[in-house]
Amino acid sequence: MKQFTSIKKTLTVATLAALVASGCTVLDPYTGEEKTSNAVKYGAGAAVVCGLIGATKNSKYARNAALGCGAIGAGVGAYMDHQEAELREELAGTGVGVKRNGDKIQLIMPGDITFETDRHDVNADFYPVLNSVAKVLYKYVDTDLEVAGFTDSVGSDAYNQELSEKRASSVASYLRQRDIQAGRLHVKGFGERYPIAPNETAQGRAQNRRVELTIIPQEPS
C-alpha cells in the first residue's frame, strides 16, 4: 500500500509538471489564478508545480518539491511570492511583521516578544513562532538569510552593539537547530543604528529593539 501511495504521488508530480510544461491551464493553489503558457515562459508555471507539491504536510516531500522548483527554473519573483504567502499564513497573529521589498522578504521580530528585557537568549514563548518560520525556510532552499539585531538608544554604543549581535546570533542558532543550513545564515548586529521609530518614547524604543530576518534569493551559480 505504501509503495502504491508513493507511485501515485510520483505520477501526480509528473502529471502536474507535464501540464505546466505543455502550456495547459492550471490553478495557482494560493491565489486561484489561472496560469497558462505565458506564465511558463516567465517561470511562474514551474512555481505552480512547486506550490502544489510543496503545500504537502510531509516535510520530506515538501523539501523535495521546493528543491525541484528551484531546479526547474521557477522565476525568482514567483518563487518568492509563494514563500511570502506561506510565511504570512504561518505568522498571522504572531506579532511578527512581514514586508516585501522587491525580491526580498523581511520578517521583523519585535524584541518585546522575542527576548526578555536586557537578555539575548530567545524567549521560550517565542519558540513556536520560530518553528513556523523554520518550517517555511526549510522548504525554500534557494534563499540566503540575513539575521540582523537592533537595539534602542538606551545604554552605551558598545553595549548595544554587543547585545544586538548576541540577539541575532541567538535567533540564527535556533534556526540551525531546526535544520536550516548554517551556510544560508548570515548574522549581523547594528546596535542602535537604523531606528524605525523615535527613541524619545517608550513605544518607539520598543519598536527599535528588534531582530530582522531578510530572505534573499541566491545568485545563480
Automatic annotation (TrEMBL):
One Pfam family hit: OmpA
GO CC terms in record: cell outer membrane
Endpoints of the signal sequence: 1-26
Keywords: Cell outer membrane, Membrane, Signal
Membrane in keyword set: yes
Major localization listed first in the record, in broad terms: membrane
Residues in OmpA-like domain copies: 102-219
Subcellular location: Cell outer membrane
Protein name as annotated: Membrane protein
Originating species: Kangiella sediminilitoris
